[in-house]
């Protein structure tokens, strides 16, 4: 697993036209907003759930156009290119079952029109992922992710500078750039994992460049102050490192980690526990520290959602439809704030598609992880796919948008799942 192959990687030979096209699609589909921090501050603590319901019902025209273009591209690409698709065991069948169950949920949805919109987004992203997965090798796929995530991160930085909102020494400020701070955290965390994987076995010049990418991504990730994004990035990267490192390196790292924690305890002594408390909030202040016990208001929301689940435990309320223009007003009154989702991908699957949807999602994640480990033993380049699944599963605990919204990070994860479920394995060094 630790052998080094000859580095034939070249940035010039990459399909930059495809990269730019996909970047353009998600610029409008996310959508990116150069004044997002300003607009967010203006709408912060908004208490009128009716406004949120109206916005949810209306949708975003730019996103609809961008997804329509992605759908046309995917159909053209799949029709034009000779594909190599096949069903790789139970994983492929369960992925198709999950998609089919989402489509069928329109039949019993509490808001069929809203469900149709959400299912259409899922189908278009899946179709696009199918088209892109067939076009890119593993090496190109890593470079594809690094390029778009890196561009998004730095454009976000310059957007904050231009808007005059970049304030890293302000306790209440969090780096957002072009989108919500949590989404920017996902962007930076996934960038770190992919840049690390792409650097493995590359030339000295590529390693130096990618090291600078990783360092800058770590900096921007930390100043998003998004706890889940930071911890999931370390978890995914750590798992990737375990898969690709020798036994002696793992033992050495473990010993240094134990020694480091002991030295930190000796240095801080009675301040050690308060220090750990500050670490959990990433410097977001007393308000964030007080909200840790309720997971920033998620526990009341989850309790309310589970009450609804008892009424429709098998089928659910329709794919990604539990919080819709009609229900959001009632839910907001109960929990005391206006949620745009149930803030857990697992609970979203349960409320939206019932126990069938949740069990299918868990099975897909488990089988994909097993498939990634199996392929990593044959080709170390697949190790990043296992790290990505760990990163994804951890984020799913406290967030739902990474499963349901048209983010590039969501799209990228879908491409990885297509690679594992529907395409033949790539040999080492290919």
Description:
By secondary structure, this protein is mainly α. The chain has one domain. Helix content is 70%, strand content 0%. It has 19 helices and no strands. Helix 6 packs across helix 19. The radius of gyration is 22 Å and the shape is globular. The N terminus is likely disordered.
The average pLDDT value, as a whole number, equals 86
For the record, the count of structural domains works out to 1
Task: Tell me what portion of residues adopts beta-strand conformation.
Answer: under 5%
Distance between the amino and carboxyl termini: 15 Å
Q: What is the general shape?
A: globular
* Unreliable spans: 1-5
Helical residues, percent: over 70%
Computed structural class = mainly alpha
Encode the helix/strand succession as letters: HHHHHHHHHHHHHHHHHHH
Give Rg in angstroms: 22 Å
The count of strands amounts to 0
Number of helices: 19
Topology:
Elements: H1 16-29, H2 36-43, H3 49-58, H4 61-80, H5 89-104, H6 112-135, H7 138-163, H8 181-199, H9 204-224, H10 227-244, H11 247-268, H12 272-281, H13 286-291, H14 298-309, H15 327-335, H16 345-378, H17 383-396, H18 401-404, H19 408-422
Helix pairs in contact: 1-4, 3-15, 4-6, 5-16, 5-19, 6-19, 7-8, 8-9, 8-10, 8-17, 10-17, 14-16, 16-17
């Amino acid at each position: 697993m630790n052998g080094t192959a000859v580095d034939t990687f070249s940035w010039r030979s990459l399909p930059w036209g495809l990269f730019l096209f996909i970047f353009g699609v998600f610029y409008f589909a996310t959508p990116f907003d150069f004044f997002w921090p300003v607009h967010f501050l203006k709408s912060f603590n908004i208490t009128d759930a009716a406004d949120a319901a109206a916005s949810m019902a209306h949708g975003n025209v730019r996103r609809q156009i961008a997804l329509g273009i992605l759908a046309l591209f995917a159909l053209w690409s799949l029709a034009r290119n000779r594909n190599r698709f096949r069903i790789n065991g139970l994983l492929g069948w369960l992925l198709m079952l999950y998609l089919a169950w989402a489509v069928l949920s329109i039949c019993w949805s509490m808001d069929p029109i809203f469900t149709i919109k959400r299912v259409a987004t899922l189908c278009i992203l899946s179709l696009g992922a199918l088209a892109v997965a067939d076009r890119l090798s593993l090496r190109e796929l890593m470079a594809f992710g690094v390029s778009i995530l890196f561009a998004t991160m730095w454009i976000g930085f310059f957007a904050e500078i231009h808007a005059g909102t970049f304030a890293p020494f302000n306790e209440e400020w969090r780096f957002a750039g072009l989108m919500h701070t949590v989404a920017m955290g996902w962007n930076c965390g996934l960038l770190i994992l992919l840049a690390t994987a792409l650097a493995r076995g590359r030339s000295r010049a590529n390693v130096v460049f990618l090291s600078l990418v990783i360092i800058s991504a770590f900096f921007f990730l930390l100043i998003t102050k998004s706890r889940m994004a930071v911890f999931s990035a370390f978890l995914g990267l750590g798992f990737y490192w375990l898969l690709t490192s020798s036994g002696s390196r793992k033992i050495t790292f473990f010993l240094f980690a134990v020694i480091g924690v002991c030295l930190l305890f000796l240095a801080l002594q009675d301040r050690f526990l308060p220090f750990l408390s500050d670490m959990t909030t990433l410097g977001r202040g007393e308000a964030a520290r007080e909200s840790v016990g309720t997971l920033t208001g998620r526990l009341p929301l989850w309790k309310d959602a589970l009450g609804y689940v008892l009424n429709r435990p098998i089928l659910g309320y329709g794919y990604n439809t539990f919080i819709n223009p009609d229900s959001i007003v009632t839910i907001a009154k109960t929990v005391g704030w206006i949620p745009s989702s149930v803030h857990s991908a697992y609970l979203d699957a349960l409320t939206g598609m019932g126990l069938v949807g949740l069990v299918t999602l868990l099975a897909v994640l488990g089988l994909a992880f097993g498939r990634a480990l199996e392929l990593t033993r044959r080709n170390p380049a697949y190790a990043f796919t296992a790290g990505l699944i760990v990163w994804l599963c951890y984020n799913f605990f406290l967030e739902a948008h990474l499963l349901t919204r048209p983010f590039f990070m969501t799209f990228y994860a879908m491409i990885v799942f297509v690679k594992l479920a529907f395409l033949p394995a790539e040999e080492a060094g290919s």
